[in-house]
Amino acid sequence: MDTEAQHLERDRSSQPVDSEGTSDVHGQEGRSRFALVSRAADRLPGGRITLTVLVCLLFLLALGTFVAQPFDIPSSSMERGLRVGDRVLVNKLAYRFGSMPQRGDVVVFDGTGYFGNADYVKRVVGVGGDHVVCCDKKGRLEVNGRSVDESSFLYPGNSPSDVPFDVVVPAGTLFVLGDHRSDSRDSRDHLGSPGGGMIPVGAVIGRADWVIWPSAHWSHLTRPGAYARMSAAEGARRYREVMGAPPCSSEVESGGSAEARRADHGRALGTGCSAPEANGPIATGGAHG
Questions:
Q1: Which of 75, 76, 77, 187 is catalytic?
Q2: Is residue 208 scored above 50 in pLDDT?
Q3: Same domain, residue pair 51 and 95
Q4: In a domain, 277, yes or no
Q5: Is 231 exposed, middle or buried (0-12, 13-18, 19+ CB in 10 A)?
Q6: Catalytic residue among 75, 92, 122, 184, which?
Q7: Same structural domain for residues 25 and 105?
């Protein structure tokens, strides 16, 4: 009993010492950080005000570089949704974590080497594996054998295209058009150029999600429902049909040897299949028209 009591006495007497020691450490760290900020402010003209402005500028720079960036619309190629002088906010994280551009998305991309040495804003009409044709018997755009009703966003009085085309979009690229078809230079104008008018997915800066200026034009840019009926799998199947490629392993009965699965993996890389496992996948810019 006496021994236990002595242990308890020592434990109680040691607690205040530890608490005070911990408090002193935290206090010193806090004072050190405060002193560091004070020294930095003292070295700058304007002191704390200048330091605050610099921190805000760095935050805006990081925001514009990695998260979102505004772009001005200098032409009428995306009317009626985007007008000359509008400013759109581009979501630069939209395609950073495995997501890919979808049909109907309005994207800003770097056209260097494809359209020209500038950034452009267009609507995605075809993604890798799609068969895009203009036009069907009723004069409508056709994607993977399905007619697309573009009346909700196409510029009034415009036809889907005055230039006929029949293209298959290679994997990893996009076929893009402006909504104001009669006043847009887009994939149609570069069909005979290197790349065939297609834009690499890697050239996409981000997805235009909001019109933020002028305030009277403020709106959220959404993906039209006209493209919702077409799945990525359907596009891949159509691509392989046009190219005469064999079906993906997911479309036939599973099984087979390891050599057969590796062959499927190799074919998938060039035919739009989802590749199976071999053993068993604020500066302000201006977006051109």
A1: 77
A2: yes
A3: no
A4: no
A5: exposed
A6: 122
A7: no
In a domain? residue 288: no
- 147 or 32, greater pLDDT: 147
Q: Which pLDDT belongs to residue 136? A: 92
Residues in CB range of 3: below 8 A, 6 or more apart: none
Residue 153 and residue 130 share a domain: yes
Q: Which of 64, 89, 118 is the last residue of a domain?
A: 64
Distance in angstroms (rounded) separating the CA atoms of residues 79 and 92? 23
Whole-prediction pTM value? 0.66
Q: Are 112 and 195 in contact (CB under 8 A)?
A: no
- Residue 221 domain-assigned (yes or no): yes
Instruction: Provide the strand spans (E) within 83-154.
Output: 87-91, 106-110, 119-127, 131-134, 141-143, 146-148
pLDDT confidence bin for 54, thresholds 50/70/90: low
Tens digit of pLDDT for each residue in 161-193? Answer: 999 999 999 999 999 999 999 999 999 999 988
Helix (H, G, I), strand (E, B) or coil at 142: strand
Question: Hey, what are 41's tokens?
Answer: 């402010």
- What is the C-alpha separation between 68 and 90, in angstroms, rounded? 5
Segments forming the whole domain that contains residue 20: 2-64
Region 251-266 average pLDDT: 40
pLDDT at 148 over 80: yes
Residues 289 and 74: beta-carbon distance below 8 Å? yes
| Count of helices and strands (H, E) across the chain | 4, 13
Active site residue 122: yes
Which residue type is seen at 142? Answer: E
Tell me the two tokens of residue 236.
């891949």
Instruction: Supply the pLDDT for residue 7.
Output: 40
- What distance, in Å, lies between the first and last C-alpha atoms of the chain? 89
